[in-house]
């Protein structure tokens, strides 16, 4: 269950006021420039869901060529925000240029295959056109799948070659590391295309029915953050590929209801406690034309977590996750024989998180992260899995390993903490830190700061080295580094800076803008900027944990009056939503309608300590709701909050939370909007549910406590239920069982269903309808059209 707060906020870029340029000499936001006063235009749903995008020219999927001379990125078309083109810009002089025009190459996009639709749904890709692309490691080509066919853009001269034009979709296309081949999956088999001969070779030919080669299975895509099922070795000799057999998975019949009728889909859906697909791993040897099976152990009921190659291609590293997700083994595999051995193991009493932090180094060592100290940190290991030294430490979590410069020994990572470097020669002011294997070292104290994120630099070669911020500013940074670790693409926003993308040297010096996205009179959002609400932040304490919250007030806010509040929620395991970053345009729709907008990251939500995340283990829907009650009670202490006019809205896990909250008397909600909610965790998939709740047989009490149905008689206000009628993730049955129970109990409620829509609501017209529905419901339950009896005491 990848995080969706609200269906529309997933697909609509956030808005905020006047842009501030990033400083030209370091990764730091510059002071906001003076700008002409913006007109006070009212932001409407009709404008939010229209072209051009209010986000302005936001670059997506930005990558740096291997030689560091070209930057590629995706940009929405001005005439259709839902179609992406591929753009490029030189890292030196020169303007950005369009490399692949999606409409020019494929004017009439046809229907995607079910496999590709499902894959894009898992990847949360809502647009059409060029939605993904990849470089070869030499930087000669950019490969771009486009509407089911494969196009190859040549760096030299910019020529675009069409490699396929078939009825079947080619999916998960890649350029081989040395740029000699292109590979893809077609009709459940892996195909390799020789660029020198223009000939295809089928690597497998047994893919049909319930057998699929080289494609990540449903659980890997949806719950393990793994979207591919095959991996080239660096020297192009080997291809590791998975084989999936779904015959063991239960068939869950579901109706796929569209505006033109309905079809029954016999979906293979592994529900909690039931059998998973059988996944095997093989290595194909291109030189010998044969493949060997990798020894993944005697227990076939495991998850194939991650697959990586050593830099010389002589070793295949495989992360094997136990079915209960409490044990993660790192296997070292001989690609010639498939023989394996366990070189490192991580364990947890709750669950071991999968990350993308594994990095093989040229000297044979590798970097990997673990939470064994209670916080996610990076460690250096030798080729046999023995820890050499910790790379990071402290009471804060590494968010991601972003890059390594193996020549200088610099390690780059993103994290959310405040750190005061210990002056040279000063021995005091540090404390004892304990590392895996009970290893101890002295370290400096740091303070977690969950609402901001920066890129940091540490050392590969020194124990207990100081950490240096590469970027700064009171906002949110993400970064994508080049292979050598000498440059990165940085993305930054804060409350006063829309998302901006720049190319930076490793020390944070700006080389050039990719998309400055300056908010001036020509920016589509400029007319609405002056009516943004004021955003404030704060904390609450719950069971020894600090919870962060944010609040946005309406334009013309008068604290001497009382105001209705909309609590936005996700609540489940995620990266957290309370950030000092560019705020959503849909939030402004709520503030324009006169609502205070509030969000709390409860326990379990956010990339924080293991203890913070594991608070919900075996009891989803309990500590999260308890923390939201704490937030509601805090709101009622504020003199400008109308105690009787508090609502909650959320999608996916947030939809579950909205249902749990509206049926919790201590919350006292006047209304709630629940979108695509999982309403009984036994109906959801194995990978997600068992990680946090174990199985229904082993945790009967926890599953019973999180079932929404018995709670429905406790509803404290009005409910709006929403769901896509073709949802293959949170199956529609989750909502129909609530509809049935409410009708049997004669409890009034409202429903809005979306034919043909899956787990998210796609496209401007439907999202416009969705937000009109939201606003209408809120207006009638806590807003200006709410019954007079519900507005008693309002000033």
UniProtKB/TrEMBL annotation:
Segment forming the signal sequence: 1-23
Keywords, alphabetical: Hydrolase, Protease, Signal
Dipeptidylpeptidase IV N-terminal domain mapped to chain residues: 145-499
InterPro entries: AB_hydrolase_fold (IPR029058), Pept_S9_AS (IPR002471), Peptidase_S9_cat (IPR001375), Peptidase_S9B_N (IPR002469), Serine_Prot_S9B/DPPIV (IPR050278)
SUPFAM superfamilies registered for this protein in UniProt: alpha/beta-Hydrolases, DPP6 N-terminal domain-like
Tagged with keyword Signal: yes
PROSITE patterns with a match to the protein in the record: PRO_ENDOPEP_SER
Domain Peptidase S9 prolyl oligopeptidase catalytic: 584-784
Gene3D superfamilies, alphabetized: alpha/beta hydrolase, Dipeptidylpeptidase IV, N-terminal domain
Keyword NAD found: no
Protein name: S9 family peptidase
Native source species: Brevundimonas kwangchunensis
